[in-house]
Write a structure and sequence with these properties.
By secondary structure, this protein is α/β, with parallel strands linked by helices. The protein is built from 10 helices and 6 strands; from the N terminus they run E-H-E-E-H-E-H-E-H-E-H-H-H-H-H-H.
Length: 205
């Protein structure tokens, strides 16, 4: 076991485990899911090259201490809960890979939703609705006191981007499903929301 981290404090709490049984890692229960086609594409990469970077995990006990409602969702047999890189973990699981490397770290200081946004909002894992749902949950996490604009700046979003993402949650369930399936474009989705707002408030016209 190799300890890593840029400071003594981090070296005490971050551990790199080069061979951790996949069966002993659960993915975050609230994780966004890849569409089947994208997951199949990722599995092709993993089949050829394996999972080439560690999966970020926290201990099961630490996770359940903050999220006791998931006690019956996270299996007793697991030691860790993946709070990032779940798509790589699930690809490895589907391919019946026995081991992956993991980095064990403490629970995020704010929330898992906020952590997932920081880790994945600038890669292609999260779709616009994934970002919207995570952003809403992060903004309403217990103890969260930052404004929407402050939170957006921490993530590297513009204020407009944050507002546009959250506005997608005003779409109907059918429209959200169409957006996630690629049948509804992002620009069209925004226009639908804007048109509905204008119909409710004539001052917007």
């Amino acid at each position: 076991m190799v300890r890593i981290g840029p400071s003594n404090r981090l070296r005490d709490v971050h551990r790199l485990i080069s061979r951790q049984a996949v069966s002993e890692i659960a993915s975050w229960p609230e994780r966004p899911r890849h569409a089947p086609v994208r997951q199949e594409q990722l599995m092709k990469v993993v089949r050829s090259h394996g999972v080439e970077h560690p999966i970020t995990v926290v201990s099961r006990s630490d996770y359940l201490a903050e999220h006791p409602r998931h006690t019956n969702v996270v299996p007793r047999r697991v030691q860790y809960v993946a709070i990032a890189d779940f798509h790589w973990l699930e690809a490895a699981r589907a391919l019946e890979m026995p081991f992956v490397s993991v980095v064990v770290q403490p629970m995020p200081r704010d929330s898992v939703h906020a952590y997932v946004l920081r880790r994945h909002c600038h890669d292609d894992y999260l779709g616009p609705l994934d970002e919207a749902r995570l952003l809403r949950a992060a903004l309403h996490a217990p103890g969260q006191t930052r404004s929407q604009n402050m939170f957006a700046e921490e993530l590297g979003y513009s204020r407009a981007t944050a507002s546009q993402r959250l506005s997608l949650l005003e779409l109907t369930p059918g429209e959200q499903a169409a957006l996630e399936a690629g049948e509804l474009g992002l620009g069209h989705a925004r226009r639908i929301v804007t048109d509905r707002r204008r119909s409710r408030d004539p001052r917007m016209t």
